[in-house]
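Long-time lurker. I teach an intro course on protein structure, and each term I like to show students one example going from raw sequence to a predicted 3D structure in token notation. This year I'd like something fresh instead of my usual example. Would anyone be willing to generate the tokens for the chain below so I can use it in lecture? Attribution to the forum is fine with me.
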Amino acid sequence: MDFSIRKRLVLLVIIASAMALVCVGVAVVVYEATSSRPRALAQWEAQAETLDVVLQPTLDFLDPDSAARYLATWREANAEIAVAAVFGPDGNLFALSRRSAAAIVTPATREPDGATFTPTGLRLWHSIRRDDRTLGHVYLLVDEPPLYARLPTYWIMAGAVTLAILVVGVVLLGGVQRNFLGPLSELVTATGRIAREGDYRVRAPEGRGDELGQLAKSFNQMVEAVGQRDADLRAAASHVEGIFAAATDVAIIATDTEGTVTVFNAGSERMLGYDATKVVLQRRLTDFLVPEEMAECAEAQSRVHGWRVEGFDAIVAPARAGQRDARPWTFVGNSGQRIEVHLVVTVVRGGHGEVTGFLAIAVDLTERKQMEEDLRESEERMRRLASAAFEGLIFTEDDLVIELNDQAAQMFGFVPPEVVGKNILDLVAPESRAVVEQNIRSSFEGTTEGWGLRRDGSRFLVESRARRLFYKGRQTRVLAIRDVTERRRAEESRARLEEQLTQSQKLEAVGRLAGGVAHDFNNMLSVILGHSELALQRMSPSEPLHHDLSQIQQAGRHSAELTRQLLAFARKQTVSPKVLDLNATVTGMLKMLQRLIGEDITLTWKPGADVWPVRIDPAQIDQILANLAVNARDAIDGVGKVSIETANGTLDEASWDMHPQAVPGEYVVLTVSDDGGGMSKEVLEHLFEPFFTTKGMGGGTGLGLATVFGIVKQNDGLIKVYSEPGGGSRFNIYLPRHVGTVTERLPVDPAGLPRGTGETVLLVEDDVTILGLVQAMLRHLGYTVLAAATPGDAFQQAAAHAGDIRLLITDVVMPEMNGRQLAEEMVLRRPGLKCLFVSGYTAEVIANRGVLQAGVQFLQKPFSMRDLALKVREVLASS
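-- Reply from a regular --
Happy to contribute to a lecture. Here you go:
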């Protein structure tokens, strides 16, 4: 009979209580035997020893009364004593004390010393001795209650123990019910639901942190895994059924171990012409096979096994032996037609590895043979196309070349037979082999570029497209390759041109910005500088305002310089090129450059021999050298050296890679180098951008090198920088060689200003403030001035003036007509009139790309009185 755990626990509590009672009884007996009586015996023997000492004098003096009193007193102190007596050596009673007259006084026999337990108590004999002489004997009769008299006490104790056990058992039973039986019951309930309903969503509560909670968690994980496995099995079964149903081009026939058909898919119906409902469980696999082939199979299997194997057993014998049985067979269809198939037979095993059936898969070879024939024709067409293709085609298998067309062989400098059998990596340059090998290992299909290796060892850039292709019955990797060396060069050239275009567009944007603001800005600066200069000339240096005006003038000059630098970078600066001897020009700049870089830096000048002339505005050479010198000074920390060199140089086609922006030809090379801190690659990439600077706040405008770049480009030159951190910097400036006579630079007297002698000057300026300023400057310099605010006013004043007009000074951009048109019309009316154009920015009417047209005299705004005096005198003195 099965008991639940709860019932078993109740029975266990009952058995424990009964065992407790037995244990209490055994304990009582043991206690009585081993503890209670020995303790009582020891107690009374000690009492007898005490009487021995007290009673010896009474026996010596034969004083029975004293002995009796001692015994009475002692007995009254010990209520358990019924009789206390002393006997003499002869055995006669000497003294007596007893509780009642009924108490026995004289025992029947004299017992030896010791104690004897009786049903009613304890009888004790003790001899009183002195020096081996017996003086008498003490006899005690003590009331000692029997065991049954103490049983109620023991029963109470046993009951208390049993009750305690029952209480503890009930409490433990409740705890077990709550902490163990409850969760186990829930687990059993969940297990039952899963078993009955197959619902794997059922879960046991996991809210505990002990072993039962872990058991519930493990149970739930197991249920989830089993449910997932069941779902996977169902999905797999459904998938297999779907495969069987979808495989209409393949006959799939499943049988039991005897060969009876259990599955006959749609492909089997289509191939053999039978209805599955009339085949399953009604026919055998052997019904569809040709008897002759079955006989041959039986004969072959009999030879293999050494005994006769026939029929279905012969067909499945290789599969049953674990061999892959795949061979051609002939099926017989419903209408008697014979169908050549490729038949594969495999074993179907159960969960314990036992054979439960067989699976036969048949593929109709009729279509396959047609496909093979079509494939052969396709491969032949592909071979012909490969031979006629413009690209190189290489077929490889296991990294070895198995076929290639003539174009591919010629690309590498071979004939096709020389390449067949080579490893494809032998045709790849070493620097590209790792990439090609990785592409092969990963079966990469796509386009890559790398370096090919020709037969003579030369390299060329190859673009290859890889595909996997079944070719001539083998899985191959075909590469379509093309020599793209020339295309890459064209792309790089295009990229360089695009970069130049981008830079040009950037310069154009800055140039537009500069041109847009330069005119008005320079007009304002002209007023500031001009009036401050006139005021300073009229004022003593000791006057309080002299210093303030000097600061205003200095700030104005600095602003004007910034504008000039911006225009120079954007190639909007108006220049008047001259044919120069670069050595002579640099020599004239050395003192000024030394002052710029300071005494701690050594300036070295190494002029080249027979340096060719160059055509450039001398002021631009001054700007280049000044900006490069300042840049070198800022790069040197403490003591250092700056070197300036000149030399002739030639750039040819071979120099194109090094200088992609260069035009082949002859150049004069101006080199400025320093031993400063050098520049990083990141700094070099932005070196010539406007406003880019590595100096701190207030340390520079970032226009110095941008100005140099703009000047060099404006003069069709080239600038190249070589620098690295800690290695200093070297700027090579290539200026085109000019064939012509060097123009001598006229010396300028730094002491005084050239003054006029009353010559009449016609001044035309649409800005009234500038008109009044320039008029005041010219009169201060000794000229007679006719001032006009418009071209029409200028014509009127010229017509009204009866005397000679030596010079026309006109703004370039004005209403009504521009300065060039005004000058041409005025010269027609007054032949021999000389013209000086002034403007705040380049005007295309008098300059081409910032270069003044031949014979045109120009003065850039803002200008000082000295600039005006020198330019006017230069124009009046010109032929």
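Some talking points for your students: The mean pLDDT is 80. DSSP finds 21 helices and 29 strands in the chain.
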